[in-house]
Amino acid sequence: MAGEAAALAAKKLAYGNVIAGFLLLAICVLATSVRLFSVIKYESVIHEFDPYFNYRVSRFLTEKGFTETWDFFDSFTWYPLGRVVGGTMYPGLIFTAGAIWSLLQQLNVPIHIQEVCVFTAPLFSGACALSTYLFMKEVRGQGAGLASAAIIAVVPSYISRSVAGSYDLEAVAIFALVFVFYLYVKTLNTGSLKWATALFFGYLYMVASWGGYSFIANLLPIHCLACIVFQRVSVRLYIAYAPWVILGALAAANIPVIGFNAVLMSEHMASFFVFGLLHAALAIQYIQHMLPPRAYSAAKRLVITVGGAALALVLALVVSYVAASPTFGWTGRSLSLLDPTYASKYIPIIASVSEHQPPTWSSYFTDLHIASLLAPAGLLLCFRPLTDASLFLLLYGVTAVYFSGVMVRLMLVLAPAACCLAGLALSEVTSYLATSLAAAHQDDAAAATASAAASRRVESEAADSAVPSSTGTSKRAAKDTAASAGSARKGGKAAKKSSAASGSDSWLSDTWRPLPKDVAIVGLILVFAGMGLFYKHSVFVAGEMYSAPSIVLQSKRADGGVKVFDDFREAYAWLSYNTPPEAKVASWWDYGYQTTAMANRTVIVDNNTWNNTHIATVGRAMSSPEKKAWQIFRSLDVEYVFVVFGGFIGYPSDDINKFLWMVRIGGGVFPEIKEPAYLGADGNYRVDDQAGKALLDSTMWKLSYYRFADCGPMFGAPRGYDRVRNTVIGKTDFELKYFEEVFTSEHWMMRIYRVLPQPNRDTKLRNPRRTKVTKRARIKRRAASGAPA
Predict the structure, then answer these.
(1) CA angle at residue 556 from 553 to 557, to 5 degrees?
(2) What mean pLDDT comes out for the span 21-32?
(3) How far is residue 203's CA from residue 247's CA, in Å, rounded to a whole number?
(4) CB-CB contact of 596 with 75 (8 Å)
């Protein structure tokens, strides 16, 4: 019997693993396919701004090879400085796409590198769902893993940065983040050096892929410190943490963009501090096992005294080192996370990016939906029971919530944590409801058995009354029937206990009480209905909100058709075909990557934002009067300037709406630029007749609104009506003296101007060919003509 039971259990386990495998495969396919709306609805094109730099370097890699990419010096950016690409980029994404492209070429699959770049993010989204499953399986079990993978596959926050065409660093970095967490927890659970080695390589890939690796570099020390405080120090924790500290620092130092910052910057020092504390805790634990209590107390005092003195000395050296830095060894972005007001006070270029603004409450529900409701329950369930793995998940969730509240971009870091916590809660709730339903079914079966036994007993008694000689036999039969009914009821109770015992690692315990059958059924219906609404919301968001590429815009016509606005590519194509190859193009830094990738022209600044002074110079030119801007652009050898303008068609993300950031960034370097001069009398930023005089005289104003009033009113609007600001502009009629309009796109979204080598001649200026007649010559001329003097 025991062998048959074991075989039956093994068979059930095998069937369960097969079903889980098919479910996991379906989740990965769903995660990839839901991100293809951008290709289906639009076309296979790179999205946003930053991905165009990654695409350009990936294209260079396919032409020149991996080695040449490390030494790539880009003279088309940051003129006249240039950029050392290999030393200023995170190579993980680019090398991953290059490796995929090389593999396909070896398999004789003719594919362009652009297609690989477009589909890299959806491919790694499926891999991220798989990593989430593995991570949560280590934390709480297979059920929690499947639930978490099912949620992260379609969570809108992650979809926003992983649709087809979103070739940004996060395309592979979120997968790497979750995979590193899985390897860390796996090492923590097993204590295996094999998994510790895998953790090192996973962390190396994460460091090479995204600057967000610093989140891992601080989260792991926080977890280790929590284990020390809660007296959960073990050999497994040492194997998971200690090799990672040393090897991880060496791995980070080998990435050129990081270099020695891996050991010199303050944001990395927590790992080394906790590394020392872990050794001290293990030393005290070892001494406790080796010495008797009295000797242990003396040795403990000695260790604490010597360790405290050494720690004080090290801290003094560290403090003296970081005190020499104005930011105490922290980067500007790190300080912006620790102090949300820091960027707005001291680094306006960071504060100017929309991704660096705090999120609204509505964005949490839009981007997380049901996960935002289930995640708090998951936090509580981490304590039932509290293990090293669940403690790590708990700390991950809490820290991610804080950082997401500081910067909307870090909602992307919160998404895996929220999905894991929501998956844990969903798994436990579903398990509780299903177990209650199973217990109710077993009770019904036991009751049916007892009822059948009772009916048989009644029939037996009736037969006994008809045949008196069989009375003894009838009594024995009734006794046996009652015994069988009792055993059936006991079997139902045993089934309940076994169900509770099977959930002993969760919130279910031996004292749990199953829900009534009707309540369990309603609960399961509500759970599946909630997940159905979540999937419906996620698919809608993926198709309508996050799939539109910023470089190609669409809107609905009145007749239901689609209107396409392709002004960006139209303008870049004009630059590519109608300007000299060596021409220098100036614009605000947002469009630098697109200009070099699509127009193949040299730009003054781009999205790397590594040189604040250079960007401030462009901001100074845009906010200055025309003549001064002309002088600045000529000093930079600029031949063409373009601005993005949305007042004609109603495009809100234009340069007029970004103009105050140009003023602030420029004023941070050049004190003569004062923001109040560009505001109206009421202190507000406005473009009507109450606009600030400096704004009306600025080059940005003139390049944006030149000939705008003469282009014809739209939809009956008055002359010079701006459809974004919803007002008539303050100055409508003016001419350009130092710039010449050479191209305006179909919908006026892109306006390109040539910087004139000499200013246009003013009609009021003196004719240079006219000779000046002196007073003496005039008198002689009048005397010769006989006119009176």
Answers:
(1) 120
(2) 95
(3) 9
(4) no
